Amino acid sequence: MTKSSSFVPFHVAIIMDGNGRWAEKRHLPRTEGHKEGVRVVRNITKASAVFGVRFLTLFAFSTENWRRGEREVNFLFNLFVESVDSYIPELKEQSVRLNFIGDMSGLPAFLRKSLQLAENETKKGEKMLLNIALNYGSRREILDAVRLICESKKEVNEENFSSFLYTTGIPDPDLIIRTSGEMRLSNFLLYQSAYSELFFTETLWPDFTEEEYLSILKKFGERNRKFGGI
Ligand code: IPE
Ligand code: IPE
Ligand code: MG
Q1: E strands of 75-225, at which residues?
Q2: Is 65 among the residues known to form the active site?
Q3: How do residues 27-80 score in pLDDT, each as one tens digit?
Q4: Hey, what domains does the chain have and what are their CATH numbers?
Q5: What spacing in Å lies between the alpha carbon of 195 and ligand 2's midpoint?
Q6: Measured from the CB, is residue 182 less than 6 Å from ligand 2?
Q7: Closest ligand 1 atom to the C-alpha of 65?
Q8: Is the dihedral of CA 131, 132, 138, 140 positive or negative?
Q9: How far apart are the CA of 192 and the centre of ligand 1, in A?
Q10: Is 144 known to be catalytic?
Q11: Residue 215 has pLDDT above 90, yes or no
């Protein structure tokens, strides 16, 4: 793994898609794909910190993913608890701070408890902030922010509005990657992605490697970001 800084985005966000298809291709239950997906989360998190990314946001469960039915949803929640609990020492060692974004009130208590513990345990991490979007939906986030800003009686401007989003204090993503060949945002960071560079790869999330990640970061460095200028 080489360390470089010239092409490294400040904030990378990833829509980790394709776990189910990865498993189906191997005639395995979809849940096996999710387990493999966790392994890749660890690799890509470690690589991000080494490359010098300061913020990494991973989409793990959307407000629409409840439609998958109780069995898959329960499996995912248990997997999140198991993975988060066992991941804490590694994150501390890498000085990575964990932060969860999404509608936490909609999650079961056993899961919330484990997420809070992990946030607390890793709060001293300074190298990178790892945001995991869980029960996250951008439309819900925006509507909640509208309600909160109205209640606050603050002036409605971009700065104040951003401070009511789940991502308060976090810069907008420079780069959004989606795996598995789907080319849509699926209700992810709709407000924050106004000027993000988008990359889509056919690779299924469990097959996504550090090498491919690095090659996307390099291509990102070659993009001409204009922000409306000339
Ligand atoms: C992404 O993989 C993980 C979650 C949404 C939890 P999928 O489970 O959506 O995999 P596909 O899209 O069915 O292959
Ligand atoms: C988006 O993937 C959500 C996550 C990666 C957590 P989905 O698989 O749920 O998205 P759609 O349904 O294909 O748009
Ligand atoms: Mg999917």
Answers
A1: 96-101, 128-136, 175-178, 197-200
A2: yes
A3: 999 999 999 999 999 999 999 999 999 999 999 999 999 999 999 999 999 999
A4: 11-222 (3.40.1180.10)
A5: 21
A6: yes
A7: 5
A8: negative
A9: 22
A10: no
A11: yes
